[in-house]
Amino acid sequence: MEELLKRAGAAHGAGRLAEAEQIVDRAQAIDPANSQANLLKGVLAGKTGRVELALEHLNKVIATDPRSLEALFWLSMLHRRQKHLEMATDFALRAVAVNGGNAHGHNNLGLCYLDQVRLEDAIREFTGALAILPDQAPVLHNLGTALYLMGKDMDAAKAFDRALILSPNSIGSYLNLGQVLLSQTNPGEAAKCARRALKLNPNLAEAHLLLASALVEDSLTGEAEIHMKKAIELNPADAKAHGLLGQRFQSLGKFEDANAHLYKSIELEPKQGFAYFAYVHNNKVSDKDRSLVDKMERLVEVGGLDPRQMMFLYYGLGKSFEGLKEYEKAMKNFDQANRVARKVKFGDAKFDRVAYAKDFDWLIDTFNAEFIDRNRLAGNPSQLPIVIVGMMRSGTTLAEQILSSHPMIGAAGEQRFWPKARHSLLGQGGRDFKAANLPVFGGQYVESLKKIVPGMRHITDKMPANYELLGPIHLALPNAKIIHLRRNPVDTCISIYMTPNRVPIEFAYDRSNIVFAYRQYQRLMDHWRHVLPPDRFIEVNYEDVVADRETQARRMLDLIGLEWDDALMHHESNERNVITPSLWQVRQPIYTSSVERWRRYEPWLGEFSNLLTE
Asked: What is the pTM (predicted TM-score) of this model?
């Protein structure tokens, strides 16, 4: 008996599983109750996918030896595979209790917690495993995954980077690191991760999907669509691919195609948030959608989604109840969405109001009227850029959609050139501006726009946050036209609160912080209003565009120096790609429901009501 088990163990260790099992069967014919034989039989059955047979033999081991570490470990893994998460966790806990110094036991317990979205518990176990065996790439990968789902992007990136140093061919770590980089608004590096994964496996649907997501963020939407479709071709049951392709069609104004893919995504994976969110933003929710809204509510009640998916679900429910005119319910869901979003994007970090205000102080003090007059001729003379700015959710997307309907104006969307260049342009800590750098930055910006939309006389960049840098931008491009979109303060702030942001916005998830940031924006724009020349800078009220599009469109064209074109009266027919949260609205004729939207929520405005008199 002992000799048979020794030979079976040797065959198992050498990977000759069929031979090992034949020898074990001979041993069990002699002694069916032998614990070692049952353990090996259970492990062999587990490795060859016969889960029920494996559980049968492993349970026999536990019946005679409740502290068998290997049997407990395998029972936990097999129940995880069967999605029996409570049982898997129980066996994993028992294994750790038997030997708390076993790194694999802690890692397995962490995976059980990760499957249940018990992220803090999972992080604790993965960290414990690494304390015992520090350089374990799979455990670092698991830790990075849990940290990412918790919203701790920087820590997650460090874990994935370390995993890839130890295991350079880990496709999973490349994919997850790419997701983190997308969250950090670094699509270029995310695309590199996707391409590395594709080099290792050209037919990996997840890698094509990651690359598509990165390309969309980098405004390379044509190439992105190719990879989305390739992902679905490789894996027709990929719910995430259908969801992203649905959003892609949405961005192009192909709403029926978008609905088909979003429905398919929900059908394939009902327990998610993203596709529900995208669907309700693709349609006017009404009583006919009650069953879908009920389904979303049940998902919230059951729980178990990771925080990012839960965030999308809450935002989707808020939008749904607004469509159903149940405004109190809508606001409660928006409150929950912001609570989760803040945790996901910033963890426990606080919005530093003092530092935020000091940046604005410096800009106002440095770029005063005298300084601007003295350095105005230092920049690049190009008239190509049209810089559209404003507080986020103020109507910049609509302005770009209208203007880019003109045959001589191309649309570049939201470009990150100036936010990325901020440190280099302004110097160390934003306190050492050098006018000599102006023509270089101006020239680089113009060339970047030409690459995105070649062959146009003018190109718009509607990055709202560029309002912070209007002084430097004007000096770098003294002939560029600047259009500032303004909107009712309360409507603007409530829209910020009710809209998920693709990029983390440090003030965006708290009413009081939004009001504070809005007042800083007002203060800075009041300064730019007094120092920028009126033949380069105008202000347009969103409400005026809604009330009289033609008059405001003519004002903008007069600033730019172009003749009128009737296409500006049909901006909804503009087929350009739109990836901002306004992608549905700008495909519609001008509508007035967004004007004084705040009145629907008047009883629940909280700190937003402080802006009613402004």
From this structure: 0.78
